[in-house]
Amino acid sequence: DAKGLDPAYFAFVLGGFREFIAGLLWVRADKFFEQGNYDAVLPIIRIVTLLDPHQIDVYATGMWHIGYNFTDTEQRSDRRYLPVALAFGAEGADNNSDTYEMYFETGWLWYHKIDDDYENAVDWWNKAALRKDMPPARHNLLAIALQRNGQIQEAIDLYFKLSAQAVE
Hints:
The protein is mostly helical.
């Protein structure tokens, strides 16, 4: 009998159940990917992130699968999926704004995959750099992106700043 129980208790139990189901589905998505059943992967990734929007690994790995592993008939990376991958990264960053990770991952896609779009990579990596948990080595990539984007003085300034921090 549930009479007299605080409704927050049920929300807590349901929340834990959602995360458990999300974890099971994520394992299933990985098996589908290994089998080459990519059509089944995207909907599961979507469901997992709806059930547990704080699963950074699902966002990062899902974005990687979408951006790099889905191929066309000639086994080339299918660029039609890139807007989906970027939107997924932005959603992951919005849902996990307290950590650098999804900002960095989205910046990497811009930097490496999308015709070397350094301006957007710099934008995303600057957002990542605002988070205190971003490791110093990741800042080095921001400096490289700044250089490639023609922001030479900003890159030099960042290199000097990183050097000074390393000595401290």
